[in-house]
TrEMBL record:
InterPro entries in alphabetical order: PurS, PurS-like_sf
Species whose genome carries this gene: Piscibacillus salipiscarius
The protein's role, per its UniProt record: Part of the phosphoribosylformylglycinamidine synthase complex involved in the purines biosynthetic pathway. Catalyzes the ATP-dependent conversion of formylglycinamide ribonucleotide (FGAR) and glutamine to yield formylglycinamidine ribonucleotide (FGAM) and glutamate. The FGAM synthase complex is composed of three subunits. PurQ produces an ammonia molecule by converting glutamine to glutamate. PurL transfers the ammonia molecule to FGAR to form FGAM in an ATP-dependent manner.
Subunit annotation: Part of the FGAM synthase complex composed of 1 PurL, 1 PurQ and 2 PurS subunits.
Enzyme Commission number(s) of this protein: 6.3.5.3
Enzyme class: ligase
Alphabetized GO MF terms: phosphoribosylformylglycinamidine synthase activity
Protein name, UniProt field: Phosphoribosylformylglycinamidine synthase subunit PurS
Length: 82
């Protein structure tokens, strides 16, 4: 069994109005120096499969990310059971 951690972010050049709103809110609360805020998604799940990487790629391409406007990356971590 493998723990999968997926990070999804907007592609460079795609406008991020949510990120811009958070950036402005932080500045309004006197957190100065914050710039280029981007908001993304994080998903974590376990997967039992003989072809983990292929399945995770398909999941990301078909449902977890919108490959037209989003990039994704993932990490795989072996789950040790006793």
């Amino acid at each position: 069994m493998v723990k999968v951690k997926v990070h999804v972010t907007l592609k460079e050049g795609v406008l991020d109005p949510q990120g811009k709103a958070v950036e402005k809110a932080l500045q309004a609360k006197d957190f100065h120096g914050v710039s280029d805020m981007r908001i993304g998604k994080y998903m974590e799940f376990t997967l039992e499969s003989s072809q983990v990487e292929r399945q995770v790629e398909e999941m990301c391409e078909q449902l977890l990310a919108n490959p037209v406007i989003e990039d994704y990356r993932y990490e795989l971590e072996e789950v040790v059971t006793s």
